[in-house]
Design a protein that fits this description.
Number of helices of chain A: 11
Helix content of chain A: 55-70%
Oligomer: heterodimer
Number of helices of chain B: 10
Distance between the termini of chain A: 79 Å
Number of domains of chain A: 3
Radius of gyration of chain A: 38 Å
Shape of chain B: elongated
CATH class of the largest domain in chain A: Alpha Beta
CATH topology of the largest domain in chain A: Chitinase A, domain 3
Distance between the termini of chain B: 63 Å
CATH superfamily of the largest domain in chain B: Cytochrome c-like domain
Number of strands of chain B: 0
Strand content of chain A: 5-15%
Shape of chain A: elongated
Order of helices and strands of chain A: HEEHHHHHEHHEEHHEEH
Structural class of chain B: mainly alpha
CATH class of the largest domain in chain B: Mainly Alpha
Strand content of chain B: under 5%
Structural class of chain A: alpha+beta
Helix content of chain B: 40-55%
Number of domains of chain B: 2
Chain lengths: 293, 246
């Protein structure tokens, strides 16, 4: 072999050995494949997984309530170490297959995917015509809460049966004639039950009066009388409306924030359902026949 | 002659390519500087502030104007705040505060968003989803609104109602978020009730509706959809404009 060919063979051989060494180093240590410089938007790169500067700044604020300018070296080191530790443990958890075995990890992953869907839904800011259409379609949802003041009258305890009904019937007639409530109470021996005292929002009045009395009271205009009505407790009641503000549709301008929240919630549900369907359709799912529902 | 013309155009092309290349490198250099410089320090560097403004304005127009308005002065119909004044609903207006809000949003679903509290709807049967708060009657809400209008610097129409509203301010736990002095708490996004423009309009009707039915504004999170450079640029630009506002 001439010297030129020998030199050539030696160079080829050296190159091959160096290549094998580099490959081996890369194979057995992640450091071998790491990039030498860290891009400006990352605070660090751990086994090629980036740790973002923005996350680092947030973490500094959350943990020590300081900005990077005000943070001490020790605070900065602590946060950086914490982030690196977290990243390494996450990577190790994936190597160990934690998502396969740990229910907490599985729950966290499900919550994370759902949160990401929420983020995507929020990023689609609806325009006014979409929101107005949603508002029109659910107008009742955006009504104001009604409120009323009603005198719920019953016969005094000494009157029972037909006597009670008689006094309530006469009291109703007197109230319809426009006689003052106080005078009617004295004259016909009726008193307020105390179930719904003063101004009441509709849901509270319904709770205090009961379904039957509320149904009789809510359509009344001020000055109108309903009854005697037999309530759920078996007693006869007379309802005299003093003030009634039934639910009214709130304007789109006032309800907009709520409309947007509900619109987003429905969009979110639709996206989640679609995502689940998509994943289900593309997956190979086999169910044990013995457990087939 | 023909050869000379050919050389001229070749030289022009090389010059143009060179200029574009240099400008691109300059832009890359500025982007790196913007991210490498600590946020609050970057806001003190005129060259970086200038670069941030050039980068931020088109991004704001494209992504933020839809809610905050083309002039970025906010929209009370949407509850979108003025981005150029000195008032900050969340945070204290530092570059890092603004950057955090842009990155993670408000009630956006992002795991680092601002979502510690929202305004309860006191007329509802269950005013607040997170924990129990008693409902208020319409008359109590009217009293509370009277007191809040007084805090906002308006002459009370009914002094007795304002006095009752003051007691309700404590009973209804308003101070828990808005603080006892009603200055608000930017760490949870509770706005000040003292004289300034309100987020959802300044009319008494709007105030009664806010107390009655609650509010929970939403801002998307932009991390991953805007580049870190753009987010930093917007944060510096808004900080700068806010600092300069009267």
């Amino acid at each position: 072999m001439n010297p030129g060919a020998r030199l050539s063979l030696t160079l080829w051989g050296s190159g091959a050995v160096l290549g094998l060494l580099a490959a081996g180093y890369s194979l057995f240590t992640a450091k071998g494949t790491a990039t030498s410089s860290v891009p400006a938007e990352y605070i660090a790169v751990v086994n090629q997984s980036p740790l973002y500067v923005s996350d680092y700044l947030d973490q500094l604020k959350t943990q020590f309530n300081v900005s990077i300018e005000d943070a001490s070296v020790e605070q900065r080191r602590t946060v950086l170490e914490d982030m690196i530790r977290e990243e390494l443990f996450v990577q190790r958890a994936l190597e160990l297959g934690e998502p396969e075995i740990d229910p907490d990890v599985r729950n966290a992953l499900v919550a994370s995917v759902q949160a990401q869907i929420a983020v995507d839904a929020t990023s689609q800011v609806p325009n006014d015509s979409e929101l107005t259409a949603f508002y029109q379609a659910h107008l009742q949802r955006y009504s104001s809460i009604g409120y009323l003041t009603v005198a719920d009258l019953i016969a005094r305890p000494d009157a029972a049966g037909p006597a009670a009904e008689n006094s309530l019937t006469h009291a109703a007639a007197a109230l319809r004639e426009g006689q003052p409530l106080a005078a009617v109470k004295t004259r016909f021996g009726v008193e307020e039950s105390g179930a719904a005292v003063g101004e009441q929002v509709y849901f509270a009045a319904k709770l205090h009066l009961g379904e039957r009395l509320f149904a009789a009271a809510s359509p009344l205009m001020p000055g109108e009388v309903a009854g005697p009505v037999k309530a759920e407790d078996g007693r006869l009641h007379l309802l005299y409306m003093l003030a009634n503000n039934p639910p009214q549709p709130r304007s789109f301008a006032l309800a907009r924030n709520e409309v947007y929240g509900d619109y987003r919630q429905e969009l979110l549900q639709r996206i989640r359902d679609r995502e689940f369907k998509y994943l289900k359709d593309k997956s190979d799912i086999r169910i044990n026949r013995a457990y087939q529902p | 002659m023909r050869a000379r013309t050919r050389y001229f155009f070749l030289l022009l092309l090389v010059g143009l390519a060179g200029t574009l290349g240099v400008r691109h490198l300059q832009r890359l250099h500025m982007e790196h500087r913007l991210l490498d410089t600590w946020p609050e320090s970057a806001a003190l560097d005129p060259a970086l502030v200038q670069f941030a403004a050039e980068r931020a304005v088109p991004a704001l127009r494209e992504h933020c104007a839809v809610c905050h308005g083309t002039n970025l002065h906010g929209d009370s119909l949407r509850g979108a705040p003025d981005l150029l004044d000195k008032e900050w609903v969340f945070g204290e207006g530092r570059v890092t505060d603004i950057e955090q809000t842009i990155n993670h949003g408000i009630r956006s679903g992002d795991h680092r968003d601002h979502d510690l509290a929202s305004m309860p709807g006191f007329l509802r049967a269950d005013p607040y989803a997170r924990y129990h708060i008693d409902s208020l009657s319409p008359a109590e809400i009217a009293d509370l609104a009277s007191f809040v209008l007084h805090l906002n610097g308006r002459e009370p129409k009914d002094a007795a109602a304002t006095a009752r509203g003051k007691a309700l301010f404590n009973k209804a736990l308003c101070y828990d978020c808005h603080t006892e002095s009603a200055q608000g708490d930017p760490s949870i996004g509770a706005p000040s009730l003292l004289p300034h423009d309100w987020l959802y309009g300044s009319s008494p009707e709007a105030l009664v509706d806010v107390i009655s039915y609650g509010r929970a504004g939403i801002c998307p999170s932009w991390a991953g959809r805007l580049s870190p450079v753009t987010v930093r640029a917007i944060a510096i630009y808004l900080h700068e404009r806010s600092e300069k506002s009267s």
